[in-house]
Amino acid sequence: MSQPSSTAVEPQLSYDPALPISAHVDQIAGLIRDHQVVIVAGETGSGKTTQLPKICLGIGRRHIGHTQPRRIAARTVAERLAEEMHVPLGDTVGYQVRFTKQVGRNTAVKVMTDGVLLAEINHDRTLRRYDTLIIDEAHERSLNIDFLLGYLKQLLPRRRDLKVIITSATIDTQRFAEHFSDAHGRPAPIVEVSGRSYPVEMRYRPLGPEGTDEGDEDISGGIVQAVRELGPTGDVLVFLSGEREIKDADKALRDARLANTEVMPLFARLSAAEQHRVFQAHTGRRVILATNIAETSLTVPGIMFVVDTGLARISRYSARTKVQRLPIEEISRASADQRAGRCGRIAPGICIRLYSEEDYLARPEFTEPEILRTNLASVILKMAQADLGNIETFPFLEAPDRAQIRDGLRLLEELGALAAPGAGGEATGDAGRRRRPARGPGDTSSCD
């Protein structure tokens, strides 16, 4: 619910010297002043997410939109920003996610999911309410992020006053820089900020042979063994593929009766109150069982150790069954490195991988962007709902195959899900025409 504020509280802008980005504040501020687009790249924990809005406020930007890929991240980032700036949440700093909005008339930094910003394009085509946009965690390359990056590329020549800051882990940053090249073909500047303050020791503890009926038990048992190996003190962050796997590991750890140890889950379907418990002060050791929402979007405080199962649920379209599935798959090397980077921030850390080093080295370098593993009919329908224009000429970072686009259009027209372009006899077979979704229930997943 929106909570307008009648009097503004003056925000306090200071930068934690312990955060690596703090050494680059003047450099980043200068680049934002001199360029329309700036890429800020850094490892997990570098301070990009919380310090960039303050840098923008410090150089006079007053209407900042700050996107996050997940609702839990949007809420916690807004709360953290408000705390650091000593202002009430909903005053200078507010947030909006699906079904919840806490902003006021004095809000200068609005943290939101990327789906919320995408939905705003429907009624604010030039995004006039913002003078600055921070697109956080762009390396995740979700559909929403790719839609926003393409739309902003089209918008920037018409909004010369708009500043855009793209943040990414140190993953393929040159692609973002080249995507936002200026009129002279010069790529956007990249600022790299280091993230990990202390070394992280990698340990490989592969589980038993794959393909056995005891696969889930092997993972839970491997987690218990890893937690025991890490000793009796120091918080542990365990990455698992999903909610069911978290519950299995939770039971195994409780049955192990580890002394002075609290086990806590962290996944998207938990209530806000349950999610907030992870960030509260505590005594004793805490073992947090998390999905990949803790990989980049959230920084769980006090983590000394990481246990990585090397698995995640990754949305993927099956051309054979014509169904969008959510199978458990091995993560990429980049994702594994992100997970390992969650420790080594407050002291030397240890990451135990429940797979072999050979397995790690054989994995793909990056996770495939969502648009390349999604049914294009779904992509086309979402673009039509957001009124993003012609899919064939839309400036994606990586454009889908044209033949697959035509197949997607044909399927939607056969299903009656997409109205033919124009009512005056325009050819429906031309994929270059703008189409609108037919009347009927829409997929709201892009407005998270």
Automatic annotation (TrEMBL):
<dbReference type="GO" id="GO:0004386">
    <property type="term" value="F:helicase activity"/>
</dbReference>
<feature type="region of interest" description="Disordered">
    <location>
        <begin position="421"/>
        <end position="448"/>
    </location>
</feature>
<dbReference type="InterPro" id="IPR011545">
    <property type="entry name" value="DEAD/DEAH_box_helicase_dom"/>
</dbReference>
<dbReference type="InterPro" id="IPR003593">
    <property type="entry name" value="AAA+_ATPase"/>
</dbReference>
<dbReference type="InterPro" id="IPR014001">
    <property type="entry name" value="Helicase_ATP-bd"/>
</dbReference>
<dbReference type="InterPro" id="IPR001650">
    <property type="entry name" value="Helicase_C-like"/>
</dbReference>
<keyword id="KW-0067">ATP-binding</keyword>
<feature type="domain" description="Helicase C-terminal">
    <location>
        <begin position="222"/>
        <end position="389"/>
    </location>
</feature>
<dbReference type="GO" id="GO:0016787">
    <property type="term" value="F:hydrolase activity"/>
</dbReference>
<feature type="domain" description="Helicase ATP-binding">
    <location>
        <begin position="29"/>
        <end position="189"/>
    </location>
</feature>
<dbReference type="Pfam" id="PF00270">
    <property type="entry name" value="DEAD"/>
</dbReference>
<dbReference type="InterPro" id="IPR042035">
    <property type="entry name" value="DEAH_win-hel_dom"/>
</dbReference>
<keyword id="KW-0347">Helicase</keyword>
<protein>
    <submittedName>
        <fullName>Helicase HrpA</fullName>
    </submittedName>
</protein>
<dbReference type="InterPro" id="IPR027417">
    <property type="entry name" value="P-loop_NTPase"/>
</dbReference>
<dbReference type="GO" id="GO:0003723">
    <property type="term" value="F:RNA binding"/>
</dbReference>
<keyword id="KW-0547">Nucleotide-binding</keyword>
<keyword id="KW-0378">Hydrolase</keyword>
<feature type="compositionally biased region" description="Low complexity">
    <location>
        <begin position="439"/>
        <end position="448"/>
    </location>
</feature>
<dbReference type="Pfam" id="PF00271">
    <property type="entry name" value="Helicase_C"/>
</dbReference>
<dbReference type="GO" id="GO:0005524">
    <property type="term" value="F:ATP binding"/>
</dbReference>
